[in-house]
Write a structure and sequence with these properties.
single chain; mainly alpha; Hypothetical Protein Ta1238, Chain: A; two-stranded antiparallel ribbon; 5 helices; elongated; CblAdoTrfase-like_sf; EC 2.5.1.17; corrinoid adenosyltransferase activity; ATP-binding
Length: 187
């Protein structure tokens, strides 16, 4: 099987149910999810050792789910019976977030991406995830999409923030705080 088909040479690509322009909002949405998936793979490569085994396993699961998100957004015609992403995935992320939060110190100031290599990579995942979410919102403004994808991406960016902090904690590296910030997060 050849890797090139030449079918996209005129600026069109195939989606589930037809063909669209390569810069279509749908392609932008699932393309950004694909980009995110690549960054998640990079983060996994930095999650070395036994102390990150749980995070590695979670990120590997996230990669599978991101493929599901992209697949769900690739449908031109709504076919809810074929959707792979369900609200349970966002709920499961909440459990992971809560578990990581127990390890993390309280946040008092805004956090700047940085610290350890793994934490920095996870912050890149967070920002690309936010862009993927924005692309899904844009797509949803003019066509029906699986709303569970949007909820999943929203929760996933929260997960990346929290697990980036956990990566720093486990490596004994402090978070990088925004020094001009007052204490904005109080209980």
């Amino acid at each position: 099987m050849g890797i090139y088909t030449r079918t996209g040479d005129e600026g069109q690509t195939s989606v589930i149910g037809g063909r669209v322009a390569k810069d279509d909002d749908r392609v932008e949405a699932y393309g950004t999810i694909d980009e995110l998936n690549s960054f998640v793979g990079q983060a996994i490569s930095f999650a070395e050792g036994e102390k990150f085994a749980d995070i590695r396993a979670q990120l590997e699961e996230v990669q599978q789910e991101l493929f599901d998100c992209g697949s769900d957004l690739a449908f031109i015609k709504i076919n809810e019976s074929k959707y792979k992403v369900k609200d349970e995935l966002a709920e499961r992320l909440e459990g992971w977030i809560d578990a990581c939060q127990e390890e993390n110190p309280k946040v008092e100031r805004f956090i700047i991406p940085g610290g350890s290599t793994l934490s920095s990579a996870l912050h890149v995942c967070r920002t690309v995830c936010r862009r993927a979410e924005r692309r899904a919102v844009t797509l949803g403004k003019h066509t029906e999409i699986n709303p569970a994808v949007r909820r999943y991406l929203n929760r996933l960016s929260d997960y990346f923030f929290v697990v980036a902090r956990t990566a720093n904690v486990r490596q004994g590296v402090p978070d990088v705080e925004y020094v001009r910030s007052k204490k904005v997060f109080r209980k």
